[in-house]
Write a structure and sequence with these properties.
- By secondary structure, this protein is α/β, with parallel strands linked by helices.
- The protein has a single domain (2-220), classed as Spore Coat Polysaccharide Biosynthesis Protein SpsA, Chain A.
- The protein contains five helices and 13 strands.
């Protein structure tokens, strides 16, 4: 099973930390943020990873190399000087991802979620990992009703940035810059997305303050080998 790591974002909220390097190479716990999902995917039995690039993409290429440091085969989808957003970036990478469902991982999410090779049931276009709402997203994104992701009124949970995606979700989209969220919403309204609640360690490292908090937490815990 393959995975795609979304790493092309400019990281505007992280400036000035991202003025000279990509957000995914900022460090927490003396390791680049990108190091964590790469290690977790490899530990979960994922063998091939596609990483999209835009801002300071060469630095990410240099850091990852061929992926062998993690036991992965790494490929890159270069979006040029301007990122294509989540949907457009995935769509451009589809030739590298193939026809089977793949893990999608936001590179700026830190989690102890355990990845594993998995398949989607017939007719299912995605499987979302949802988490309890953090302070910066108190209203949440989706409901979870008997294993199905739903929209509408009711108790919502937050999309974690971790998902299994069927390429068919994006196959009819036109190339270009567009977000993933409207596609997920439309598929959820059709009953075509499953989900799970994850209540383990999870942080959306979207601001310098959250990065500093994560760094302090990781440095305070006993160090373990990768």
């Amino acid at each position: 099973m393959k995975a795609m790591i979304l790493a092309a974002g400019r990281g505007e909220r992280m400036r000035p930390l991202t003025d000279a390097r990509p957000k995914t190479l900022l460090e927490a716990g003396n390791r680049a943020l990108l190091d964590y999902p790469l290690a977790a995917l490899a530990a979960g039995g994922i063998e091939q990873v596609v990483i999209n690039l835009a801002w300071q993409g060469q630095q990410i290429r240099d850091f990852v190399g061929d992926g062998s440091r993690w036991g992965l085969d790494a490929q890159f989808s270069d979006e040029g000087s301007a990122a294509l957003e989540t949907g457009g970036g995935i769509h451009q990478a589809l030739p590298l991802l193939g026809s089977e469902a793949f893990w999608l991982v936001n590179a700026d999410v830190f989690s102890d979620y355990v990845f594993r090779p998995a398949q989607l049931a017939p007719g299912v276009l995605a499987h979302l990992v949802l988490v309890p709402n953090p302070p910066h997203n108190p209203q949440g994104d989706f409901r979870l009703v008997e294993g199905l992701v739903a929209t509408g009124a009711g108790q919502r949970l937050t999309y974690s940035g971790l998902a299994i995606i069927d390429p068919a979700l994006l196959r009819d989209c036109a190339p270009g810059r567009f977000p993933l969220a409207p596609l997920l919403t439309a598929a959820a309204e059709q009953g075509a997305i499953t989900g799970e609640l994850f209540d383990g360690i999870w942080t959306d490292v979207g601001t310098p303050e959250r990065l500093a908090e994560l760094d302090a937490r990781l440095l305070a815990r006993p160090q373990t080998s990768r």
